[in-house]
Specification:
Helix content is about 80%, strand content about 0%. It is mostly helical. The chain folds into three domains: about 1-40; about 40-205 and about 245-310, no CATH class; about 340-578, no CATH class. Helix 6 packs antiparallel against helix 13 (about 270-305) and helix 14 (about 330-335) runs antiparallel to helix 15.
Length: about 575
């Protein structure tokens, strides 16, 4: 019998059957969850479906009209479209790599299902393969959702044949595997060395240096009016000089972009060559991940799980012993806030410390707001070209919208699952003298204040760099303050109304019905708020009656979107306490 177990063919077939079983069971479970969501509330499901369909139609119209407008310029349109595609896919590849890194680390080392599978007679390779597939799907669905309207619009503007679309789908399927492999490899490397204080410090310094490099390096080269009048292509190349790195031939995004564009132009041989380059690299690195990462994953998972019983933890800004009675930096800071009760301060310290110890969470927060901050800092490089009040206000409102959507992503990703992450310990919290309502309100105020510090600073800096008067700066600051409290209230309220107490993975909690509804309502609220504020002229350049009406509508909408979910959530807490 042992002879058969040692046979390579038998082991290979056994691992394949185990992987197929995991895929089938999880696919069936996901399908049942979709059916359960539909039965839970057909109205809310219809709203989400309408929002998704509306996004696809609206995004297609925007991409189609934009590409059609660019194509009207002979010579310049094709060059600009080509550079835009190279830049888009390069940045999407970087974002996919980051997303795969974060989700892979959580799925491989901080997931209850993975811990359970490791106790079963399932090979380590099979467990890693399943988690790799799950990670790639979770990290890539938003990417596919984003670029689908763009590629359809690109094909219609270029008038491509029908074979362009299946070829593009095949190329994208190959493309998303590479960031999945690299992200999983980085997750394993970080998991293996994360307990080292020097590694944590170096990782944090690298993130700061990267953001500083982007902030000070990424700026457009100035172009004089004579060059714009005489040499349009040369002026365009100088303006887009910082995007030349996206045309580096060894980037996977370059292979994908070139293959898509050459196929659309009818240069089939060149497109097949780059498609073959993409295919060969995908097969090579994918085979390495499927055959070699399993053993490394098991030893890394063992090291990660063993740290929970270690004597030291890297706490906020310094290493402290777990059983030490000496108050840390956070305890000393919150002790100064004498107007807060001691139990409220304890919950706030606990949430902040848990957030800091989870590298995947604060890492995403740094990237979310860091990239936006790098863009805003670079406003100083072209503000001297904005002389019209119309364009200054337009840029200010666009920056406000970008900051609000960024905040919506953060609140959906981090604030919404806060209640669910208490999990089976929720009954302990409910029996405490503090009670669930005060715990939820503490989480709300903590998330609101912390996010307000970042968003208010970014919006104020944006208005200052645009050289707007202080009255306008105060207006935009007040708007983002109201939005911050409203979006956090929506996330906390829906998190209580649609909890998932059985799941420990925040990514899966957010991917559920409640998380999707939270992001949909946040997006609708932001779009409606910007529409009201722009219609009212921003409160300082329009008729007084229209301005007052629009601002009043924005305040009422913000109050409803932030207060109603919180009120319904507080009522829902009675069921948990009962």
């Amino acid at each position: 019998m042992g002879y058969f177990w040692r046979m390579p063919g038998f082991l290979g077939s056994l691992k394949a059957s185990q992987l197929l079983l995991l895929l089938r069971v999880n696919a069936l479970h996901s399908w049942r969850r979709v059916l359960a969501v539909r039965e839970q509330s057909r109205l809310l499901t219809s709203i989400i479906g309408f929002f998704v369909a509306g996004y696809l139609v609206l995004a297609f119209e925007i991409f189609y009209n934009g590409l059609k407008f660019i194509a009207k310029f002979p010579g310049l349109g094709a060059a600009l479209t080509e550079r835009l595609l190279y830049t888009l896919f390069a940045f999407l590849f970087a974002l996919l790599l980051l997303s795969n890194l974060i989700i892979a680390y959580t799925n491989l080392f901080r997931n209850r299902e993975t811990t359970f599978l490791l106790t079963l007679p399932v090979s380590n390779e099979t467990i890693f393969r399943w988690k790799f597939i799950e990670t790639t799907v979770l990290a890539s669905w938003a990417f596919l959702f984003l670029i689908a309207p763009l590629l359809v619009a690109f094909g219609l503007v270029r008038g491509v044949a029908w074979d362009f679309y299946p070829m593009t789908v095949l190329l994208i399927g190959l493309f998303i595997i590479l960031p999945g492999v690299f992200g999983s490899a980085l997750a394993i490397g970080i998991g293996r060395h994360l307990d080292r204080k020097s590694f944590q410090i170096v990782l944090l310094l690298l993130a700061v240096l990267l953001l500083a490099f982007v902030a000070f390096w990424w700026k457009a080269n100035p172009v004089d009016d004579n060059l714009l009048d005489k040499r349009t292509l040369e002026a365009l190349d100088r303006l887009l000089a910082k995007t030349r790195f996206t045309m580096f031939p060894f980037l996977p995004s370059y292979w994908l972009s070139t293959a898509v564009q050459r196929w659309a132009e009818g240069i089939v041989q060149n497109a097949i060559f780059f498609a073959a380059v993409l295919l060969s690299n995908t097969l090579f690195f994918g085979s390495i991940a499927f055959t070699r990462f399993g053993r490394i994953f098991y030893s890394t998972a063992s090291a990660v799980q063993s740290r929970a019983a270690g004597g030291f933890k890297f706490s906020l800004f310094r290493a402290t012993k777990i059983d030490s009675a000496t108050p840390g930096l956070l305890e000393r800071f919150f002790s100064k806030l004498f107007w807060l009760k001691s139990d409220t301060r304890a919950v706030a310290v606990k949430d902040l410390r848990m957030f800091w110890r989870d590298t995947t969470q604060w890492g995403q927060s740094v990237m979310f707001f860091g990239l936006l901050g790098a863009y805003i800092i670079n406003l100083r490089n072209f503000t001297h070209q904005l002389t019209s009040p119309f364009w200054i206000n337009a840029v200010a409102f666009l920056n406000l919208g970008a900051c609000a959507f960024n905040l919506a992503s953060v609140t959906t990703r981090f604030v919404f699952p806060q209640f669910s992450l208490e999990g089976r310990r929720l009954w302990v919290v409910g029996m405490s003298p503090m009670g669930l309502p005060r715990v939820v309100m503490t989480k709300y105020w903590l998330a609101s204040v912390l996010s307000l510090v970042v968003t208010l600073a970014l919006v104020t800096l944006s208005c200052y760099l645009l050289k707007m008067p202080w009255t306008d700066v105060a207006f935009f600051g007040a708007v983002i303050t109201v939005m911050t409290f409203a979006l956090n209230g929506l996330a906390i309220g829906l998190g209580v109304l649609y909890p998932n107490l059985k799941e420990t993975n925040p990514n899966k909690i957010v991917s559920g019905f409640g998380g999707t509804l939270c992001f949909v309502l946040s997006s609708v609220y932001i779009i409606a708020s910007l529409t009201l504020l722009v219609t009212g002229g921003g409160g300082f350049r329009s008729e007084v009656s229209l301005t007052v009406l629009c601002i009043a509508g924005f305040v009422i909408l913000s109050f409803v979107i932030g207060w109603l979910p919180m009120r319904w959530g507080m009522k829902q807490l009675k069921n948990f306490e009962g």
